Amino acid sequence: MPLPGLFLDDRAFEQLLEEARERLPVNAPEWTDYNVSDPGITLLELFAYLSETLLYRLDRVSERHYRAFLRLLGCTPRPAQVAHAVVAFRAEQPVSLPAGVQVASANGDTVFQTGAPLHVADARLTAVITKTGGRFEDHSAANAGLDAPFLALGAHPQPGDALYLGFDNPLGSEGSRLRLFVIGEDATADLRTWQALRE
Q: What is the 3 state secondary structure string of the chain?
């Protein structure tokens, strides 16, 4: 549940202007022309406008205050870092992409850029076989749907367990560098795992 908004002063332009006009007989008794055409009234309107703007800013919580509140909770901001995303490239035939290829999200709000050249193969994953405890299982259908997660090496992996991936075409020439991404139910945990493997 969000915290209620702060309203230290909710006076608007008309109320501020009226309050200033009511003070004229006391503070400036020689001032008798209260019409809009009077230059003094124009100045009062200007000050009422500026006061309304200041009151609006007074009710806003600044970024500096947000950071101070977070520090009170023991949260410290992390330094800026590069965002990472897994992007799937599909090609009808093998193609090599240079570094700096930009990929945008569906709505165009976020743009990612590749940091190194990469080779896109035309191969499609057709078979996923696991071997756990000397027993083979075919998980190709579960992998194709991405809606039935499975433990690739079982709940308790043992030496000798294996994951076999079958493709309909070669992934590249001999010695090509390949990357395998395993997607789980928690994207944050996936990122931590990926970073740990990379390190």
A: CCCCCCCCCCCCHHHHHHHHHHHHHHHCCCCCCCCCCCHHHHHHHHHHHHHHHHHHHHCCCCHHHHHHHHHHCCCCCCCCCCCCCCCCCCCCCCEEECCCCEEECCCCCCEEECCCCEEECCCCEEEEEEEECCEEEECHHHHHHCCCCCCCCCCCCCCCCEEEEEECCCCCCCCCCCCCCCCCCCHHHHHHHHHHHHC
Beta carbons of 123 and 171 less than 8 angstroms apart: yes
Q: CB-hemisphere CA count at 13 Å for 159?
A: 0
Q: Are 130 and 162 in contact (CB under 8 A)?
A: yes
Other beta carbons less than 10 A from residue 167's beta carbon = 13
Does the global pTM surpass 0.70?
no
pLDDT digit string, tens, across residues 112-130? 888 888 888 888 888 989 8
- The tokens of 118 are what? 């990469």
Radius of gyration, alpha carbons of the chain: 33
